[in-house]
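From the shared-data thread, chain only:
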Amino acid sequence: MHTYMLEEMSDSVAEHCGANRDDVLRVLSEYWSDKIAHVWQVDDVIEAAVRTGKPITAQAANDVLQDVFDHLDCEYGITWTTIEVALEDYDFELRRLSPDDWPNVYGIFNVRREDESGGIRFGSEDNDLGNLPDAVALAEKLARENPDKVIVIESVSDCRLCVPRMSVVGVDGEIVVE
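Structure, as tokens:
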């Protein structure tokens, strides 16, 4: 067990049970001294999703992680490939999210007119949470300025591929997010 994980566990136990953190850390360190465990976390699923251009929330990442666990083949274990394959089967519909949930989406987004290349990027490897509201705001602005033109919001992967995830269009003065 990695030291930082033991420290995180100790902090949690100390906070929730009122125990002394150092005592908890000592007990956990002794317990894990003759064992190994490879631990996968929601953060790992989020990292893989962002890397592969799949927008995701922490709750959805937890669902993917639970699905991986439920279908675990103990002979092979869990690898990054296991997580990436689980994400291939995962379809996160941004269109179904309430605008109130947009700030909770991890991802890097590109906004452009459908008939143009390039676009404006929102987010980076170091800034992958909460980019969707700004991307949608720009798409809505562009839709107002370019009536009847489709504005696409794409998710961006590490290999710089852009995958369309949402579209915004201005029709008869109304902005439609699809």
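The helical segments are 3-17, 21-31, 42-51, 58-70, 80-89, 132-145.
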